[in-house]
Amino acid sequence: MINSADINSDNPNLKHRNSVFSLLFSDPAVLRELYSAIGGINLPPDIPVSINTLSDVLYRKQINDISFTIDNRLVVLIEHQSTINENMPLRLLEYIGRVYEKIIDRKKVYKTRLVKIPRPEFIVLYNGDKPFPDHKELRLSDAFKDVSGLKATDDDSKLLDLVVNVYNINAGRNPELLKSCEALDGYSRFIDKIRECKQSDCALDEAMKTAIKYCLEHDILKEFLEEHSSEVINMLYVDWDLDEAKEVWREEAYEDGMEKGMEKVLNLLDQGLSREEIKRQLGKISDRGTQK
Asked: What is the pLDDT of residue 3?
């Protein structure tokens, strides 16, 4: 099922810049289960779920992880992160504007009668290796600059705000949440198994193969992995290489103040370059910084 040919940086799957997480939760039925678990409710199977995840036509990649509407009354944006980004409220503000443009007839906005829109909800699912609580709120208003001296009063109730609920989905965290969603629990255990294998000095490809074999044998995401094993390996390679690239960028930014380092890395990924070519380009950047 899994061979070396599957682990090829030139595989077309990479050019779609999808992720294992977004592929796993691309089924409306699975999303219904996921939202039910997070919201502590039980959405009936006949409640319509419509996926409207944003995409970049030019680079054929997803812009956000998952966005969907429930019965055209609720629009939910869910992001998966292995590092906590305090700017997620701002990023999600940008995303929700684009989602509304996608799902609402713009002509109606110019009518005098009030246009009813789906209520937004913002969720981040975190499974990084840094300590993090089971749940935390991130607020857009925390990023606002101090305006004292510019206004007579500062009435927070009039502020634009956006609240992001962050949940830790690592193995052993939020047990009730994971128990309520089989797909989310399986994803958490799958990623945990890969990390466990990597910690025992396995190469990345061996760690992924071992984790997939283990999950198949223990009926963890079995149907999903049987259907998408080669895609999963390719996507994970991109994810792990991007994490390594971020570390290189952090070091470079610290040494040389290159604030646009991450943008360069992401541009290389967007261009569909192979793993080897990206590393070569990063090496050039690092060499230039050393020569300075």
From this structure: 38
More confident: 90 or 255: 90
In tens, the pLDDT along 207-246 reads 888 999 999 999 999 999 999 988 888 887 766 555 555 5
Whole-number Cα distances in Å, 47 to 50, 52, 118, 173: 10, 16, 15, 29
Residue 267 lies in a domain: no
Give residue 11's pLDDT. 37
- Domain assignment present for residue 146? The answer is no
How many domains are contained in the chain?
Answer: 1
Contact between residue 169 and residue 184 where contact means Cβ atoms under 8 Å apart: yes
Specify if 280 maps to a domain: no
Q: Is residue 216 part of a domain?
A: yes
Q: Which domain holds residue 24?
A: 4-141+159-236
Q: What is the pLDDT of residues 136-168, one digit of tens each?
A: 999 999 999 888 888 776 666 667 899 999 999
pLDDT in tens, 113-142: 999 999 999 999 999 989 999 999 999 999
